[in-house]
Design a protein that fits this description.
The complex is a heterodimer of chains A (325) and B (283). With 325 residues, chain A is mainly α. Chain A is built from 13 helices and two strands. In chain A, a hairpin with a 6-residue loop joins strand 1 and strand 2. The radius of gyration of chain A is 27 Å and the shape is flat. Chain B is an alpha/beta fold and 283 residues long. Chain B has ten helices and ten strands. In chain B, helix 3 crosses helix 4, helix 3 packs parallel to helix 6 and helix 6 packs parallel to helix 7. Helices cover 32% and strands 24% of the residues of chain B. In chain B, a hairpin with a 2-residue loop joins strand 1 and strand 2. Classes of the chains: A mainly alpha (325), B alpha/beta (283). At the A-B interface, helix 8 and helix 9 of A face helix 2, helix 3 and helix 6 of B.
């Protein structure tokens, strides 16, 4: 056995110094990341604080129960009524129409892009679709009233020619209506649904597809019965984002939905959404102590709670369908 | 999928005959040929991954494909269910004749979907579908149009019993497959592959993602299955090949170096390259 003293290695001190330098750098990076995270939480709580604080004077005048259950929203009248339900109905009905367009169309395009389209076609089509999301929503709004709504009026006229009873109650589709605004909003959302769903489906491991093809399945069966269910948690995330976009969308509905707060679920009528009301009220020059001005914050708070609810629902869906592969 | 003669022109008898000399006390029965690879080459684009390979696969026997990484053994295995057709730029040359129907699996006349219906595969990593245990096994049956509730249930139970999984899952058939352990998932995949009564089952390193106990169960299972179905297994584990297989093919750089009874390959190989590989001198 060799003498231990002859093989003593060089002291490690220089390395230790270097190590402490590395640890300092690690601390700094950690601190910066924490700061960024705290900052986003700070912004969110700031928004909530402002909404709650600014709507307090409103709720001193208007009973919150009356606000939540009232069916009339007439802030400009001499005897104003502040029942939020017409605005909620407008928001939900435009959102519903938009989702009925965006979910099927977006999902079908995503399945096609992910499972059927050749790589070269996908590389061209996907960025083009995502470009749709870059169009300013005010453009979509004018697209709605100059093209989609007139076309829908023609379609409606044709449809009611088969249903004379409908003709008596609703002789024609108004230019400003929930249906057209919702359809255009749906088109606007398609790229969000499609792009995120496609990402989720492409992230499904190839070995799952091979398992399905290996059993003798064709592409359609593999896409619908293996890939789509495996990706559903990601697809649900895409749907959640779509709902949030639709609920919060402002310009399209402010331009094309008619700005008439009526408590109805009928998509053939004009309506006003919460966001459209906020735009309308804040464009006027209302004094800050005016109840109309204060109502903006109460409406905004309602919108915030609705969006939060949908997001929580989406998170629950994602958890429920998360697959470990 | 090029230059393969029509099915009718195939010679009626396999060119290779089973080795008939008895080996040791448990002299195996002589198996009829189930599939025969003839001058098969396979190209990934311009890369020739399998080079002019010929060998028989005997019915109700286990044939192991061994060799170092990249030798083409998995590529050869995946020719049997036309898995390569899923990706562009791949090309087969030569034939894999399936008996008794004499169809050339890699020929233009054979439909990849039909071949996959007749040749099942178990993958390297367990890959159950995001469905219940029951629906995983029923997947292939539904694809084949088995619709009746009672028939499905009977066949699923039979397949799960065949994969030695029934006792462990019979009370939770409706639960998701991802709740099972890795070894159970792999046996579920074996049940899925067996449920459709395939002519051949391909195993692509089926235990490489499993612990020794789960591996032992899968090996026992393969041992049981040889009574019922023709098995091809790719493995990196030479002990596994010697334990579970009747015949072994040693491949190296895309070529088939040696093919013989497993006992012969592992005790007295005729090529020095084989001897070097099985004694662990390379690979």
């Amino acid at each position: 056995m060799p003498d231990a003293t002859t093989t003593t290695p060089a002291p490690l001190v220089p390395h230790v110094r270097r190590l402490s330098g590395l640890m300092l750098r690690e601390r700094v990076v950690e601190g910066l990341l924490l700061l960024a995270a705290v900052f986003s939480i700070f912004i969110t709580s700031g928004i909530v604080f402002i909404l709650v604080n600014e709507s307090r004077p409103f709720f001193r005048t208007v009973n919150p129960i009356e606000f939540l259950t009232g069916g009339e929203w007439t802030p400009q009248f001499a005897d104003p009524k502040f029942g939020i339900l017409p605005l909620v109905a407008g928001t939900l009905s435009t959102t519903l129409v938009a989702l009925l367009v965006a979910m099927p169309v977006g999902t079908i395009i995503a399945i096609w892009l992910s499972e059927f389209a050749p790589a070269k076609v996908r590389e061209v089509v996907k960025p083009l679709l995502e470009l749709l999301a870059a169009v300013p929503t005010v453009v979509y709004g004018f697209f709605a009233i100059t093209l989609v709504s007139p076309v829908m009026q023609q379609v409606y006229a044709w449809v009611i020619s088969f249903f004379p009873s409908l003709k008596e109650n609703y002789p024609e589709l108004p230019l400003f209506n929930v249906l057209s605004a919702g359809i255009v909003m749906g088109l606007m959302i398609v790229p969000y649904v499609c792009s995120l769903s496609e990402d989720a489906m492409r992230a499904v491991p190839m070995i799952l597809r091979e398992g399905s093809f290996g059993m003798g399945a064709n592409r359609t069966t593999t896409a619908l019965r293996v890939v789509f269910p495996a990706a559903f948690s990601g697809v649900a995330a895409a749907y959640t984002l779509a709902i949030s976009r639709a609920v919060g969308e402002t310009m399209i509905v402010a331009i094309a939905a008619g700005n008439q707060p009526t408590l109805t679920a009928n998509p053939l009528q004009p309506a006003q959404t919460i966001t459209a009301f906020i735009v309308q009220a804040s464009m006027g020059d209302l004094p800050h102590d005016d109840i109309g001005y204060q109502s903006i914050f109460a409406a905004g708070l309602t919108l915030f709670v609705m969006t939060l609810g949908f997001n929580l629902l989406g998170a629950a869906l994602r958890r429920r369908y998360r697959q470990a592969y | 999928m090029v230059n393969t003669p029509p099915v009718e022109s195939l010679t009626p008898q396999p060119v290779m005959q089973p080795h008939s000399e008895p080996v040791g006390a448990d002299a195996p029965v002589v198996h009829p040929v189930k599939a025969e690879v003839r001058n098969l080459s396979f190209y990934y684009g311009s890369f020739k991954a399998v080079k002019n390979v010929s060998l028989p696969f005997y019915e109700k026997a286990v044939t192991a494909l061994i060799g170092p990484s990249g030798c083409g053994k998995t590529t050869l295995l995946r020719c049997f269910n036309r898995m390569h057709d899923l990706y562009p730029g791949n090309r087969y040359e030569g034939e894999i004749v399936l008996y008794p129907s004499r169809i050339n699996i890699v020929g233009p006349a054979a439909s990849p979907i039909e071949m996959r219906m007749r040749v099942s595969m178990v993958f390297q990593k367990p890959n159950p579908f995001p469905k219940s245990i029951f629906e995983n096994v029923a997947y292939g049956l539904r694809l084949r149009g088995v619709g009746g509730r009672s028939e499905l249930e009977a066949r699923v139970e039979q397949a799960l019993r065949g994969a030695a999984l029934w006792e462990e899952v019979k009370d939770r058939l409706r639960d998701g497959a991802y709740g099972l352990s890795g070894g159970q998932q792999q046996r579920l995949c074996i049940a899925r592959a067996l449920a459709v009564e395939p002519e051949i089952v391909l195993f692509d390193e089926p235990t490489s993602a499993l612990d020794p106990i789960a591996t032992g169960k899968i090996e026992e299972l393969i041992d049981d299955l040889r009574q019922r179905v023709t098995i091809l297994i790719v493995t990196h584990n030479m002990q596994q090949a010697s334990r579970v297989s009747d015949y072994t093919a040693f491949m190296y750089l895309g070529e088939m170096i040696e093919y013989d009874r497993t006992a012969k390959i592992f005790t007295n190989p005729s090529k020095s390259l084989t001897e070097q590989y099985i004694s662990g001198r390379f690979g």
